Amino acid sequence: VAHPASERVAADFHAAMRKLIADHLTYCRMCIMTLVANSRITARNVACNLPTYLSTPPIDVLRDRFKGYPAIVVAAGPSLRRNIDLLAELQGKAVICTVQTTFKMLLERGIKPDFVTSLDYHEISKRFFENLPDQTTHLVAEPKVNWNVIDTYQGPISLLDNHFARLCVGPALAARGGLKAGATVAHLTFY
User: Fold this and answer.
1) For residue 89, which of 68, 65, 72 has the smallest C-alpha distance?
2) What are the residues whose beta carbons fall under 8 Å from the beta carbon of 156, sequence distance 6 or more?
3) What CA–CA distance (Å, rounded) separates 84 from 78?
């Protein structure tokens, strides 16, 4: 609502403020629409992943298994380009954990990570797990990951705790450990 007296005193300021408020409301509306759309996709992915969720071991069995060992998080970026060949020398000396986007690249260079992580809800993530030369790396994934990833990967899999999965199958069947929620697959890999 425009206040006529204020408009007369500082019309440019009020026009700029109305634009900022309108832009903010547009942003908020888009966030809510994205959240609602993604929640439907996430619920579908979790539901499609329930058979794997129930039939594979949780990450609980890995707790403290590598305690005292150094770990290396592998993600895409300039430092990987410079240091990728050093990773081969570190196999067996450090726990190598990689994000899904660098997984194939490592395998193609003969570097077998101990863990690969995935959490993306989109079907495009499947391409990171297709036609792999080796499928013995342990996949640790969020249950919200696109079900095509889980169906494509033939190696060992552990799905993390998920509230919606617990609602679907009950707390006794769904009992498993989780990791801190991260904004990216690199955060998940670090945790």
Assistant:
1) 72
2) 56, 136, 137, 138, 139
3) 10
